[in-house]
Structures are given as C-alpha cells and as structure tokens.
Amino acid sequence: MTLTSLAQSYTACERIARTQAANFYPAFRVLPRAQRQAMCALYAFLRITDDLVDLDNGQNSHALTRIGTDLQLRSNAKEALYDWRRRLELALAGNCSHAIHPALADTVAKFGIPRQYLHDVFTGVEMDLEPVAFETFEQLYRYCYCVASAVGLACIHIWGFEGEAATEHAESAGIAFQLTNILRDLKEDAVRDHFYLPRQELAKFNYSAEELRRGERTQGFVDLMRFEVARARDYYRKAEALKSHLSRPGRAVFQVLMRTYSSLLGQIESRHYDVFSSRISLSRWKRVRVALGALPVRLGWSS
Lowest CB count within 10 Å: 45, 53, 91, 164, which one? Predict the structure, then answer.
C-alpha cells in the first residue's frame, strides 16, 4: 500500500461517508470537525467490512474500489473478512495496510473506543455469510447487538458521554435501529435466504418463511408486523434517555439518527406494513429537514 498520511486517510474516510452514508452523513455534519472526522473513519471501516460480506454475491465497482484489490483477490468473503480482521489488529498496533487505517487507528486511540466493539461487529457480519434463520428473539437480539449496538457504543465514545447508564441506552438504540432495518428489508433479505424474524414469532402469527419469500401480506403478516413494530418502538423509548448522557454535539447527532430511523418505522406503519411493493426510504429533502431539526440542539438553543 502507498503510504497514507493521517490527513489523507481522514480525507479518504470522509469521501466514503459523503458518497455512501445517505442516512448518516447529514448527522455527522452537525458534529465539530474532530468528531465528524472520527465518525467518518468509523463509518468507512464499517462500510468496507459490510462490503466484504457481499464478495461471494458480486457487487458494484464502487464497492470494489472501497475494499481494495488485495482483499478482492481473496477466494471468498469469509477469507477476506478474516484477513481484514487480522489487519485491523495490526493497524491498531501501528502497522497500517489500507488507506483508512491511519484515521481509524487515530480515532480508536483518541476517543478511547474499546476494541471489543469492533470485534463484535465482525461477529455480527459473519452471521450473514450463511443463510440466516433465527429461532428465538434472544438469537436475533445477539445479532442486532453485534451489527448495531456495538456500533452505537463506539459512537458514544466519539460523541462524549457521562454515566454508566449511557451504555445501556446506546445498546437499546442499536436494537431499535436494526429492528427497523430488518422490517424495512424483509423482501430483499428473504430472497437471499436471510430470515431474521424469529421462527417462534412467525409460528405464533401463523405466517411462514415461504409466505415471506413470496411477499404475501396475509392477516398473520399484518399482526406479526404490528407486534414487531411495537417492540421496536419500545426500544426507541428506552433509547430516548441516552440524550441526557451525551455532550451537546453528541445529543444533536443522536437526535438526527433517532428521527431518521423512527421516521422509517413510521413509514412502515403508514403503509400498513407493505414493505414488499417498493422500498421504504427517506427523500433527500426529508433527510435535510431531519438534520436541520438538530441544529438548535447543536447550537445550544434548546436542551
């Protein structure tokens, strides 16, 4: 790898975040420069890690460019992830081998991010390498923790927080966000044999994985979705308390994320749980409005 300076590394990370993080980058913009750069470094690491999961499926040229040629040449996604995880530890020890590594290592050191959170992410994404079928909510919760809550726990170290209770609320936020993602993406995930909703709960509402694969909106499906949305809302309520533990800039970015994901959940409800006919997303204008809504908090105009 061509030697990358710290400034160049942060620039590379910000480029990835700006072009790929449609739901996140507007939130990063409300942070002071050092924290914004750190969030971009963390996002770039997560983006590449997630892209590696798709190596076995084939992905677009932009993703290939982000990943790096040496990782692409691995025989499969599992091997590439193993190598990326090994290189993470080397990077954190000062031996950087990818353009984003200097910025990521600097971010972890500067903000005291426990390395375990990054390794938890690997545990989560590795679950997606094979067909997914969780039996219980406890299994789903573990997955959500690894791919989302661990990320949130890393984020609050960048944002600044006080009190041990912050970690509990950040964990709840991650569960809420990931449950929202899962409900939004049921159609796409079912096509690739990823059934995140627990089998026990599908059975409870007399709805099958095959019906899900076919995109059938039976009464059982509606009842199931109503149950799952209510659960997600409960985690959003638990997550709300995180605001009082965060620094003012952190509170602002957290509110952007909360409003973004809760808006997606609201769209699922307003469409009567139809996540099959078209993908649910926020318009660019809606994302801008959400980000602007956090500015009073960022500037100290409200609590």
Answer: 164
Helix ranges, the chain (H): 6-20, 25-28, 33-53, 61-67, 69-72, 77-92, 101-111, 115-127, 137-144, 150-159, 165-184, 186-191, 199-204, 209-214, 219-240, 248-270, 284-293, 295-299
pLDDT score for 300: 42
Q: How far is CA 45 from CA 3, 90, 235, in A?
A: 18, 14, 26
CA dihedral 211, 217, 220, 226 (to 10 degrees): 120
CA distance 125 to 132: 11
Pairing of strands 194-195, 132-133: parallel
Residue-wise pLDDT for 138-197, tens only, equals 999 999 999 999 999 999 999 999 999 999 999 999 999 999 999 999 999 999 999 999
Structure tokens at 229: 């949305």
What residue has token string 């072009």?
A: 19
User: What is the rounded distance in angstroms from the CA atom of residue 303 to the CA atom of residue 294?
Assistant: 11
Q: Which tokens is 26 given? A: 């507007």
DSSP H helical ranges for 29-164: 33-53, 61-67, 69-72, 77-92, 101-111, 115-127, 137-144, 150-159
The residue type at 262:
S
> Nearest-5° angle of CA 75, CA 76, CA 80?
95
| pTM of full prediction above 0.85 | yes
Q: Name residues whose C-beta falls within 8 Å of residue 148's C-beta, 6 or more positions apart in sequence.
A: 124, 174, 175, 177, 178, 181
